[in-house]
Sequence to fold (382 residues):
Amino acid sequence: MKHLLILNNGSSSLRFAVFELEKKTAKEVLAGSFSLINTKSVLVYNQGHKKYKINYQTGYNLKNWWHYMHGILTKYDIAYVGLRLVHGGEEFVDTTKVDGDFLKRIVKYNDLAPLHNPAALELIGLVKDTWPRVKIAASFDTAWYKDLPQAAYLYSLPLKYYRDYKIRKYGFHGLSHEAATLYAAKVLGKKLNKLKVITCHLGSGNSLTWYMDGQVKDTTMGFSPNEGLTMATRSGDVPVSIAVYLASQLKMPLDKIEKILNEQSGLLGLAGTSDLRNILLACGYKVAGFKSSWKFTAEQKKLARLALDIYVYDIRRYLASYLAMSKNLDAIVFTGTVGVASQSVRKLVLSGLSKPKHCQIIIAPEGEMKNLADKTKKCLIK
Fold:
């Protein structure tokens, strides 16, 4: 029996799943993830009816994670691999076979998604080294936004910067938002061309997407995944004048500014931890199954409250704007690790917001991996 492996790297995580390929279906037989808990790696996976959890002393390292994961995969006949790539620009709007030409063309987007695309390409290299003959396909977060209206995707810059350099809003987390939209349509019994939803992907990275009557109308992430909401280590929206000030007045090189905005900001920059669970605990909220190594001093609690307030405020201001522009909204859909698991965050986000009476709140199980499997199967297996 041939198997399909799906790989989905986040900014500080790696999810994987194995699907058994039958004639018409793909049945999941293994699912797991690597994540960071207090700078250490944790592998959690389900195999059949058994659940496993293994702690490693090493931090974020894809080569190490691949080595640990490969030991689990040896019992499967991996013939196909599908990966999530965050950025495909306007060039890649469909799931694409990975070959030499693709690898030459895709590297131009590394600078636009520096926390994700290079890691995905590293994974492709590890896959090819391990199984030289395996067939590989890549699916893109940006593809969900290929039909964004011009008013939503163009910035108010001289048009030559779009025409010559394709500087525009691209949108990200598309595979997750697509899966959440499809889930909402199923729950509500509606066709996509009649569906009106706002999907909220909340995890280490955060984004909202407004979908109406068969088309994505807007989304919070833009030219890069750093735009929009406050995230674990990413700043979200900041005025360009701040970057100019850092460069001109503080003589800060551009690579350092980029590192600050992508890796040292967000919750980490505000509260000293990128883990929202620490912040929720410090603010007095319960987090099931999580033990923090933090010692919650008065100062840490104060900073945690500030970080949580900013985190929630950012989500609410975008959500409110999409609510105001929507007509007869069917649902607000939460997905992503935080969106699904944290009732506290959902309550904080929705508190006091005015929404249509018939608008439902839907929690969509993370369907990104199955979405990737379906796209990969369609691309590689005729």
The chain has two domains: 2-152, 189-363. The domain at 2-152 is CATH 3.30.420.40 (Nucleotidyltransferase; domain 5).
